[in-house]
């Protein structure tokens, strides 16, 4: 099933004449999680267990053996012996085998479905980790700058070249940055723990974690066509096929069953033996089964239509969201280019071209724009991870 999905994706890539030249980021982490994730192991084992279980009960029932000993009047004794084999209508076994195979396909695609969602979860968590790490590095620089500024103005205050209000404003900024640093550090540690947990408790190489590469395919048509290989839609379609096979079984269960066997009866003076035949006509035991199966097929069809519509729309909307984030990112980069850098602001403050209040205000604008830029980078990377989710199945 997985190979079929990626064969189709390869065809789409050829149609759009696009070659993947950039390596997928965080491949090492994703492979490690696929190997070590405990929940994925459980899902695979459970799918295998249920797939094997679907083949139970397809063969005919076992032989029935009966023996009797009947003492009569006087010295007469009657002995009986019977061997019986019961069969459902022959076509039922073929239909039950189709159900078992369809059930196996459903369980297998269920594993693929879970794996894709797991890979997206890992990639999203890794992106949040990178964002927290970069934020922490930025806050570390800001913290050092604030401490240096406070030292400088404290000396100036001692020399009578600065006032208490200016020192207090710097202290307030320092406290704010320290709290942001501690909060971000806790977030980073929490995300690191989540990645280790997703990796089955095994160590993660955090040095190789980064944002995923940008999209190689910039076409809404491409992403709308990917719905044709979405495991969630495939799962629903296969479940629909499973329900249709169950409906066929329920119809064939209304056909008569058979029994054949060998019988023997004998006394001291007489013996009788021969072949036995029988017919089982299901009049009541399968009542409403076919009607129930028909409703099941109808429900599964409607569910497939609903899921297909949702995912097709989701893929297009995700692609549009990605483009909007990319535009916002470019806009903020241009804004930062037009703002004074921290180094230039420091120089202006030292030369007395701007006051401390002006310096802190300009610095706040710069910090705010930088924070939003990093956030847009993170959100854009998350959008990329979501749009590239089908590629994670071939890792």
Please tell me about this protein's structure.
The protein has 395 residues and is an alpha+beta fold. The protein has a single domain (2-394), classed as Outer membrane efflux proteins (OEP), CATH 1.20.1600.10. Helices cover 67% and strands 10% of the residues. The protein has 10 helices and 4 strands, in the order αααββααααββααα. The protein has a 4-stranded antiparallel sheet, with no helix packed on it. α7 runs antiparallel to α8 (289-338) and α9 (342-350) runs antiparallel to α10. The two termini are 15 Å apart.
Number of strands: 4
* CATH 4th-level superfamily: Outer membrane efflux proteins (OEP)
Unreliable stretches? 15-23
The CATH class label is: Mainly Alpha
For the largest beta-sheet, the strand count, sense and barrel status come to: 4 strands, antiparallel
Tell me the helix content: 55-70%
Q: Which H/E pattern describes the elements?
A: HHHEEHHHHEEHHH
Number of helices: 10
Kindly report the CATH topology.
Answer: Outer membrane efflux proteins (OEP)
Q: What is the rounded distance between the termini?
A: 15 Å
Instruction: Kindly provide the radius of gyration, computed on alpha-carbon positions and rounded to a whole number of angstroms.
Output: 36 Å
Name given to the CATH architecture:
Up-down Bundle
- Bulk shape: elongated
